[in-house]
Amino acid sequence: MLAKDWQKNNLTPNPAAPDAVLVRRLYLDIAGRIPTAEETQDFMKSQDPQKRMKLIDRLLASDGYTSNMFNYWADILRLTDNVKGRVTAQAYEECSSSNSKRTSPMTSSSVIC
Q: What is the pTM for the complete model shown?
């Protein structure tokens, strides 16, 4: 799908990011943190041709992803901890925490609070 649009618009895709760059980007984008030195070294040493896909799957199933997405949506919805807004924030926290553990991040079956 993308390739057809690129061809139609005379565009070429960027080359794949090197492993050292990709592992950092994936951790930051998905889990909201940089990888530890050990996590980076393990990824870099792996000879598995599916290591990129496996890392993405592992990060999407992590508590870091849940926390990162909670913080992202809390910022978007401008949740606050003040006394007046706490009831709404608490309801969102409960709903999003339970839903993020039940649903896959990449499916349309996610429940909206």
A: 0.69
